[in-house]
Design a protein that fits this description.
Length: 664
């Protein structure tokens, strides 16, 4: 039986000293522009440098800008920076390929690090057709001679303003309508030249990875009879020289993120077991598998690894020696980096603690790791450690002055027994500058998904609520990831049932444990499924004096036919809607709206195809017809998760002003 060996030490990293609370001021909306988002750390092959992306909100242009930063891994000394994103080291460590824009030309560039000279390589055309979890990535060949990338197979069609006619299920994209182009695997010489398509045809391909001998590329494709109506991703390989295809896996479910082993014999991948899942937020946790790269019938049955880690596994990659496969997983509000031996299935916990660690990379020797770490009072920064998690240290401090000058509120963890005895985790944030003996209005914030997860990570919106004098309660009800498969399945066939009871029981537990929470001044808010649950809450109870529902669902029947992903309802309720419309109506907030009295603000992007704005319109209209105070804030050009910095700030401001109006 495989075992889990907890051999790595918890991180003991001393962050920059923070002045006493009296010297700091509460977080304000204007401080959003000062937050520097750090991501995608890439260790150089020799382990001496880290390239990563720093992005910031530019309110003058109303876009987010990004730069590639380079620092020495020994001491964080700045080496250089340039505009761009997605840096990837050449195998010899002398160049960085990146995505950028220069002189009106956007695409893939290569920068020689010694001279600083940049060369344009290719501008991969992109389709807006949505494939679910399908990174349209690119990668150097191990010998450094080529770059493989994923791109659309033709120029985008010109829309003439006339009728648009569709005959496929997936005719919508996240914020528009599909251009119906396919994505394929291409290769181009690293020195430049004419790209060559390896997989052009009638199918979509994505999620590429090179074999160690630079002769094959692994990719993922759904080649079922009706890919719009399934999610049957399988792993394939293509011979770069001949174009010969080999199907490596064949299962009724989906595979993701193929990775060749260092010896080229195996391909690891993440995947599901259940035959029906959703492209959006599946209840099934991802698993890690290993399969013979040859795809031969005798050895093509995948072998599951790390079975004892009952969590949602992702970010899998090989140790360059082939002795371990690394992966990460959400766990009890944190995010942990593990590694597993493919021979004996022994799992080591590599990086863990009261924080979230993710986005890691290894050097060519497999001795050093770079990763992103954040917690509730520290935005993300780059850290480095030995490959076993020891000797961890902070490498960047982009947000150090921000943290030092502002009064960020820590989350206090608590556990409670829900209505049926299930143990559920939550957190409470005190208002900034809370005075002992005083009571404060408090907001229940509900996460999305439904299989999302709250935890110890930096969230500006929650910090802004706390800075404006509100307590914040966060709960991971059944359905949340990070607690095992059984818990993740807790909301299936039961939206608004057990998870709603968990939220109310958790709020009661927080009130009982924290006398500063004023139970007569409660608000509720959430985004996406959190918006659905906000709508559900106000139809079930009158205890909340105000609500803010963002990107919210209200009618599961109409949602099915208008959303980008119809398969969410099919998977969560294990049926086609017309087989039991009454069940979907039973769990629709709109069905129970008649007795609602809670003043509600609806915030929604006008081109949100994940949750169409009609969902907010239906609930808003019902409340107004019932004489309930309600406001609908529509944001043009925005989808499911706002992009424009000014709209992000505006939606946060409106949220707090709404709560001020009813809870002060």
């Amino acid at each position: 039986m495989p075992s889990i060996r907890l051999s790595a030490s918890l991180l003991a990293v001393t962050l920059a000293a923070v002045p006493a609370a009296a010297q700091r001021r509460p977080f304000q909306l204007a401080d959003l522009s000062g937050i520097q988002n750090v991501s995608d750390p890439q260790l150089s092959p020799d382990g001496k440098a880290v390239a990563y992306v720093r992005s910031r909100a530019d309110y003058a242009t109303d876009v987010e800008t990004s730069d590639v930063m380079l620092v020495a891994s020994a001491d964080g000394r700045a080496i250089g920076s340039f505009a761009g994103s997605s840096p990837r080291w050449s195998p010899d460590g002398r160049s960085l390929a990146f995505m950028g824009r220069r002189d009106g030309r956007a695409g893939l560039f290569i920068r020689d690090l010694a001279s600083g000279v940049e060369r344009w390589i290719v501008s991969p055309p992109q389709t807006d057709h949505w494939l679910g979890r399908s990174p349209k990535n690119w990668a150097w060949s191990p010998d450094g001679s080529m770059i493989a990338y994923v791109a659309a197979d033709a120029a985008a069609p010109v829309r003439n303003g006339g009728p648009q006619v569709y005959s496929r299920i997936m005719y919508k994209t996240r914020t528009g309508f599909s251009d119906n182009r396919k994505t394929h695997v291409y290769v181009v010489a690293a020195s430049g030249g004419t790209p060559r398509c390896l997989t052009c045809g009638d199918h979509d391909e994505h999620s590429i990875s090179w074999s160690p001998d630079s002769r094959r590329v692994a990719f993922v494709s759904d080649r079922s009879a009706d890919p719009d109506n399934s999610y049957e991703n399988d792993v394939y390989t293509v011979d770069v020289g001949t174009g010969a295809l080999v199907q490596v896996t064949k299962s009724p479910s989906a595979e993701f993120s193929p990775r060749f082993s260092p010896d080229g014999r195996w391909i690891s991948f993440e995947g599901w077991v259940r035959p029906h899942n959703t492209k959006d937020s599946p209840s099934e946790d991802q698993h890690l598998f290993l399969v013979d790269a040859s795809g031969s019938a005798a050895s093509a049955r995948p072998r599951q690894l790390a079975r004892r880690v009952d969590r949602r596994l992702n970010e899998s990659t090989w140790d360059p020696s082939g002795k371990h496969l690394y992966f990460s997983a959400a766990d009890h509000g944190g995010n942990v980096i593990y590694r597993v031996s493919p021979t004996d299935d022994v799992v080591d916990t590599v990086i863990t603690g009261r924080f979230q660690a993710r986005g890691y990379s290894l050097d060519a020797a497999g001795t050093t790791m770079a990763y992103i770490r954040s917690d509730d009072v520290h935005p993300a920064e780059v850290f480095v450690a030995d490959a076993d998690g020891k000797h961890a240290r902070q490498l960047t401090n982009h947000n150090g002055s921000l943290v030092a000058g502002l009064m960020f509120q820590e989350e206090e963890e608590f556990w409670f027994d829900s209505f049926d005895g299930t143990r559920v985790q939550g957190w409470v944030m005190k208002p900034a500058g809370a005075v002992p003996g005083r009571k404060y209005p408090t907001i229940l914030v509900i996460h999305g998904g439904p299989h999302g997860m709250f935890g110890v990570t930096f969230t500006p919106q929650q910090q802004y609520l706390a800075s404006r004098g509100y307590g914040v309660v966060l709960i991971n009800p059944r359905g949340s990831q990070g607690y095992g498969q059984a818990f993740s399945d807790g909301s299936v066939l039961n939206w608004g049932g057990g998870d709603y009871k968990d939220l109310m029981a958790g709020l009661d537990a927080a009130i009982a444990a924290h006398p500063w929470i004023d139970p007569t001044r409660l608000g509720v808010t959430g985004i996406s499924y959190g918006g659905y649950m906000t709508n559900w809450v106000i139809t079930q109870t009158h205890r909340f004096k105000a609500a803010v529902a963002s990107a919210s669902l209200s009618n599961l029947i109409s949602f099915y036919g208008t959303s980008l992903y119809t398969d969410l309802i099919e998977a969560e309720f294990n049926m086609m809607p017309w087989d039991n419309y009454s069940l979907l109506w039973q769990w629709s907030p709109l069905a129970h709206v008649a007795g609602t009295t809670t003043p509600t603000l609806f915030i929604h992007g006008e081109v949100d195809n994940d949750v169409p704005i009609t969902q907010a319109e239906e609930m808003y209209t019902a409340l107004r017809k019932l004489g309930v105070e309600a406001t609908l804030a529509r944001y043009p050009g925005e989808g499911h998760g706002f992009r424009r910095p000014t709209f992000i700030a505006d939606s946060d401001r409106r949220m707090v002003e709404w709560f001020d109006r009813y809870l002060r």
